[in-house]
Write a structure and sequence with these properties.
Helix content is 40%, strand content 16%. It has 145 residues and is an alpha+beta fold. A hairpin with a 2-residue loop joins strand 2 and strand 3. The radius of gyration is 31 Å and the shape is elongated.
C-alpha cells in the first residue's frame, strides 16, 4: 500500500521544502483567521425577537392563551395536574409547561407542576383570570377546599 521507500523520502523532502518556502504565508493566513475569528466572537449578537404566537384556528376564536409562572409559594407547586382540578374550577386547561428550558406540550393528568415552571393555559379571558388567581394565591386550589 505504501510507495517505495525512495518515492516516500522524495515526497517528504518536497513537502518539507514547500512548507519551508511558504512558512511566512502560512503564518499570515493563520493570523488573519485569528483576527477574523476574534472579531466574530466580540461582535454583539443581534437582538432576538420572540415570534408572535400563531393565530388560533377559527373554532377557538374566543379562546386566549396565557402563561403563568409557578412560584414556590403557589399551592399548585408539587401537585399533579389532575389534583389541581383546574378545568373544573375555572374552565381553563393546561396545554403546555416550560421547565428548565424544555417544553412539555399537552401534558397528561399525571404531570407534576413544579415551582419555577411556566404553565401555558387556554381559555376565555374570564377563565384565564380565574386560573391565574388559583396559581398565584397560596392555598386557593380546589384540592385545598
Amino acid at each position: 500500500m505504501l510507495p517505495p521507500l525512495k518515492v516516500l523520502v522524495l515526497l517528504l523532502i518536497v513537502v518539507g521544502l514547500v512548507t519551508g518556502l511558504l512558512w511566512r504565508s502560512f503564518i499570515k493566513i493563520y493570523a488573519r483567521a485569528q483576527v477574523a475569528l476574534q472579531q466574530t466572537f466580540t461582535r454583539p449578537s443581534p437582538p432576538r425577537h420572540e415570534p408572535a404566537p400563531a393565530p388560533l384556528p377559527g373554532i377557538l376564536h374566543e379562546a386566549n392563551l396565557d402563561t403563568v409562572s409557578v412560584a414556590a409559594a403557589s399551592a399548585a407547586a408539587g401537585k399533579l395536574i389532575r389534583e389541581l382540578r383546574l378545568r373544573t374550577a375555572t374552565g381553563a386547561s393546561i396545554v403546555g409547561i416550560e421547565r428548565n428550558g424544555a417544553s412539555i406540550i399537552n401534558p397528561g393528568p399525571d404531570e407534576e407542576i413544579q415551582a419555577g415552571d411556566r404553565v401555558l393555559i387556554l381559555g376565555n379571558r374570564a377563565q384565564l383570570n380565574a386560573a391565574r388567581a388559583l396559581f398565584e394565591n397560596p392555598g386557593s386550589l380546589a384540592t385545598d377546599r
